[in-house]
Design goal:
The chain starts with a helix and ends with a helix. It is mainly alpha-helical. Helices cover 71% and strands 0% of the residues. GO terms for molecular function: guanyl-nucleotide exchange factor activity. This is Ras-GEF domain-containing protein.
Length: 366
C-alpha cells in the first residue's frame, strides 16, 4: 500500500484512486504504535527492527506530517528495550552474587529477622521486587509459552525467536521465595525461635503463607505448629483456601482490582496476583478452547478472553512502588543462601526427629 500510494502521488491524473486509497498512513502508524507498546520485545530481533524502519520510512514519503508520531514511536521502543537490557544485566549480577554466596557459605550468617525486624517493612520490600519483576514480563512471552502452532520458516522470513526469559525469571523468583521462607524457619534449632519466625512470616503476607509454609519440610513440624498463633493463620488459610477453585482468593482479587481502578494513591493501585494461579488460568483457557471454529475461522472469543487477562496484568505492571527501597533487605532476600530440597528435609529432621514410618524411611533415604 505504501508503494501504491507513492506511485499514485506521482501520477496527478489518479486523484480519485489516491483518495480511495484513504489515509492508510495514520492507521498503520497507530497499529505499529500499539504493537511496539504492547509487544516491544518482538523487536529485539534485528530483522523485525529493520522491517519497522523500512515501513515507517515508506509512510513518511506519503505522509511527512507523521514524522513526530513515528519519532515518538521509535523513541519509546528504544527506551523500553534499553530498560530491558539494563534489567537483565542486573538480574545476571544478582544471580552471580547468589551463586558466589552459595559456594562460600552453606547457610546464611544471619537471619531475616535481624536484617528486617518489621513484617510491614519486609512486605514493602517484597512489593518492590514483585512489581519490578512483574513489570518486565512481556505480553508476548505468554504467547510464546502457550502457542503450539508455529509458522513455518518458508511462510514468513522472521522466525519466532525467543529472546526474553523474564516469565521464567519470575517463576524462579516465586520458587526462591518459597524456599527462602522454609529455610528461615528450619535453620533454627530451637523450637521457640522457629515459632517466632513462623509468626513473623504470617504477619508479612498471605502470599508467603501459601508459597512458603506449605512445603512438607515445614508442615511436618507438629510441635512447632502447636505453639503458633492459629487465629492469624486461620484468616490467611481462608483467603488462600483452594476449594471452589480458590473462590476466596478470587473474591479478594476482584476487590483489589475494583479498589485499584478508583484509587488516588499509588499504594491503593497495587495488585500483585497469585502468579501460579494466573498462569494456570491462562494455560487452561488456551488448552480448553480451540483456536479455530469448525468452519476454520479464528475463535476470536478465545482470543478476547486471553487478551482480557493479559490486559489486566499489563494494568498491574504500570504501578510504581510507593514505598522506600531498602537495598540491604532486598539484597538479602535475593542473594542469601537457601536450602534446596534435600538440605531442607535434613534441616527439618534436625528440628524434629522423624516420628512416622514414612518419615523414618524418608530420613534413611536422605
Amino acid at each position: 500500500m505504501c508503494i501504491l500510494q507513492q506511485n499514485l502521488s506521482r501520477d496527478k491524473t489518479n486523484n480519485q484512486d489516491m483518495s480511495r486509497s484513504g489515509r492508510f498512513g495514520p492507521h498503520i502508524v497507530n497499529l505499529l504504535s500499539e504493537w511496539t507498546e504492547m509487544f516491544a520485545y518482538d523487536f529485539r530481533d534485528d530483522r523485525m527492527m529493520k522491517q519497522l524502519r523500512d515501513i515507517t520510512q515508506r509512510i513518511l514519503v506519503s505522509f511527512p506530517e507523521l514524522r513526530k508520531d513515528i519519532n515518538n514511536l521509535s523513541y519509546n521502543l528504544v527506551t523500553k528495550l534499553t530498560n530491558l537490557k539494563s534489567y537483565e544485566e542486573n538480574l545476571n549480577k544478582i544471580e552471580t552474587e547468589e551463586q558466589q554466596k552459595a559456594h562460600t557459605q552453606v547457610v546464611a550468617t544471619t537471619d531475616l529477622l535481624e536484617v528486617c525486624p518489621s513484617p510491614l517493612v519486609l512486605a514493602q520490600q517484597l512489593t518492590h521486587i514483585e512489581l519490578e519483576r512483574l513489570s518486565m514480563i512481556g505480553s508476548e512471552e505468554f504467547v510464546q509459552a502457550f502457542s503450539k502452532e508455529r509458522v513455518s520458516s518458508d511462510v514468513i522470513n522472521c522466525q519466532d525467536l525467543k529472546t526474553t526469559h523474564n516469565l521464567e525469571s519470575y517463576v524462579q523468583w516465586f520458587n526462591r521465595l518459597s524456599y527462602l521462607v522454609a529455610t528461615e524457619i528450619t535453620s533454627h534449632i530451637k523450637k521457640k525461635s522457629r515459632v517466632r519466625v513462623v509468626e513473623y512470616f504470617i504477619d508479612v503476607a498471605k502470599e508467603c503463607i501459601n508459597i512458603g509454609m506449605n512445603l512438607s519440610a515445614v508442615t511436618r513440624l507438629k510441635k512447632m505448629w502447636t505453639k503458633v498463633n492459629r487465629d492469624k493463620l486461620k484468616i490467611l488459610e481462608h483467603q488462600m483456601d483452594p476449594s471452589n477453585n480458590f473462590g476466596s482468593y478470587r473474591s479478594c482479587l476482584k476487590a483489589a482490582m475494583w479498589r485499584s481502578q478508583g484509587a488516588a494513591e499509588d499504594r491503593e493501585k497495587i495488585v500483585i496476583p497469585f502468579f501460579s494461579l494466573f498462569v494456570k488460568d491462562l494455560y487452561f483457557l488456551n488448552e480448553g478452547c480451540c483456536s479455530r471454529q469448525e468452519d476454520g475461522s479464528v475463535n476470536f472469543h478465545k482470543c478476547w478472553q486471553m487478551a482480557k487477562q493479559i490486559s489486566d496484568l499489563i494494568t498491574w505492571q504500570q504501578v510504581e512502588c510507593p514505598f522506600g527501597k531498602i537495598p540491604s533487605v532486598i539484597n538479602y532476600i535475593l542473594t542469601t543462601p537457601i536450602y534446596k530440597e534435600t538440605m531442607l528435609s535434613l534441616a527439618s529432621y534436625e528440628c524434629e526427629a522423624p516420628d512416622t514410618s514414612y518419615d523414618r524411611e524418608r530420613f534413611k533415604q536422605l
